[in-house]
């Protein structure tokens, strides 16, 4: 996998015959207490020194990923638009900077239905973000959650379910990664003997959760299951030499996972 173009809000790589573009929607600052130790115990003064803070808070990048096979463009997650913090909503600008016409995006897939992944379907001015959208894929277990979002009402009937084991076209298949949300999913993208796991919110704080994957997140719907999914995907990435792409890994959010002692280490690409 090689970088062929980059800018402030994007970076494009080759993956076999595909192009993968990491797109930065922005960032969000969260309190340290969102990180949870076993037993749902928040961190207090015991946060390891390797975790950087900005004004006392954790800064999480918010990333989406576009997959271009030369004829069809698929977008994994859409950012938050203007539905949450004002530090997000830059996906349209990232697409322009990357030279991607939003009209080419015909397929949108969600790793899960939290607002920083789905609300970018609608622009801040209320228009459709992707005017030629033909398919909208949502984890089956989260269809009702998606259809409860009033701001996205125009897309409720368009949403179609997928589940672990499904295959989307020639290059993408779905791996279950439940726990952070009930249908949280990972997209395994393969081409030309190379592969990448676009894994959503498997890791929120990369400076900590690769080294200590037992650490969970307050918003994990099932913390034990989220922990198990993280350990399984980390082992898969390290042992089978998949790259990983994360929604909250530091922008551009792509790198390698290697085993380090009894744990793991992230190496940005």
Features of the shown structure:
5 helices; mainly beta; eight-stranded mixed β-sheet; Metallo-beta-lactamase, Chain A; globular; 269 residues
Q: What's the helix-strand series?
A: EEEEEEEHEHEHEEEEEHEHEEE
Mean pLDDT: 97
* Helix percentage range: 10-25%
Strand order of the largest sheet: 1-2-3-6-7-8-9-10
Number of strands: 18
CATH C-level class: Alpha Beta
Backbone CA Rg: 17 Å
The CATH topology: Metallo-beta-lactamase, Chain A
Number of helices: 5
β content, as a range? Answer: 35-45%
- Gap between N and C termini: 9 Å
Stretches with pLDDT under 50, minimum 5 residues: none
Structural class: mainly beta
Per CATH, the superfamily is Ribonuclease Z/Hydroxyacylglutathione hydrolase-like
Gross morphology is globular
Can you walk through the features of this model?
With 269 residues, this protein is mainly β. It has one domain: Metallo-beta-lactamase, Chain A. The protein contains 5 helices and 18 strands. The chain has helices at 91-98, 115-118, 143-146, 206-209, 223-239, and strands at residues 2-6, 10-15, 18-31, 35-37, 41-42, 57-68, 73-76, 105-109, 135-139, 159-162, 167-168, 172-176, 185-191, 194-198, 216-217, 243-245, 254-260, 263-268. The strands form 3 sheets. An 8-stranded mixed β-sheet has the order 1-2-3-6-7-8-9-10, covered by helices on one side. Strand 4 and strand 5 form a beta hairpin. The longest helix is centred in the C-terminal third of the chain and has 17 residues, at 223-239. The protein starts with a strand and ends with a strand.
């Amino acid at each position: 996998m090689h970088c062929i173009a980059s800018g402030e809000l994007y970076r494009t790589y080759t993956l076999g015959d595909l192009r993968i573009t990491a797109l930065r929607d922005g960032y969000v600052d969260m309190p340290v207490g969102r990180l949870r130790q076993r037993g749902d115990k928040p961190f207090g003064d015991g946060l390891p020194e390797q975790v950087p803070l900005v004004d006392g808070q954790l800064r999480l990048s918010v990333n989406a990923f576009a997959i271009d096979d030369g004829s069809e463009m698929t977008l994994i997650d859409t950012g938050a638009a203007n539905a949450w913090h004002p530090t997000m909503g830059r996906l349209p600008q990232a697409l322009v900077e990357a030279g991607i016409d939003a009209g080419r995006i015909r397929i949108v897939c969600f790793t899960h239905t939290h607002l920083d992944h789905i609300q970018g379907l609608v622009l801040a001015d209320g228009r459709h973000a992707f005017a030629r959208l033909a398919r909208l894929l949502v984890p089956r277990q989260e269809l009702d959650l998606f259809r409860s979002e009033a701001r996205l009402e125009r897309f409720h009937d368009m949403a179609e379910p997928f589940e672990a084991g499904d295959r989307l076209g020639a290059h993408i298949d779905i791996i279950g990664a439940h726990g952070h949300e009930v249908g949280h999913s990972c997209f395994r993208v393969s081409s030309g003997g190379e592969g990448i796991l676009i894994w959503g919110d498997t890791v929120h704080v990369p400076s900590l959760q690769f080294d200590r994957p037992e650490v969970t997140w307050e918003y994990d719907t099932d913390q034990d299951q989220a922990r198990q999914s993280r350990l399984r995907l980390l082992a898969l990435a390290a042992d089978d030499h998949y790259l990983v792409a994360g929604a909250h890994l530091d922008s551009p959010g792509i790198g390698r996972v290697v085993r380090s002692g009894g744990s793991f280490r992230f190496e940005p690409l």
